[in-house]
Amino acid sequence: MAAAAVAVPAVLTAILAQTNSPQREYAYLYMAVVAVIAFLRGLWPALLAAAVSFLLFDYFFVPPVHTLTIADAQDLMNLAIFFGTAGVVGFIAGRRREAQMRAESLARELKNANAELVRLNRDQAAAAQAAVRLARTEQQVQLLQQAEQDLRDLLATISHELRTPIGTILTDSTNMLRTQDMNTSVRYRIEGIATEARRLNRLLADMLSLGRIESGALHLTLEPVQVGDAVAAAAERLKRIAPDRKVEWDAKEAGVSALADWDSLGQILDNLLDNANRFAPPGTPISVRVSLEAPGQVTIRVLDHGPGVPAAMRARLFNRFVKGPSDAGDGTGLGLAITRGLVEAHAGSILLEDGPPGETTFRFTIPKSEAQAAS
Question: Where does residue 220 fall: left (phi above 0), alpha (psi -120 to 50 degrees), or beta otherwise?
Answer without folding.
Answer: beta
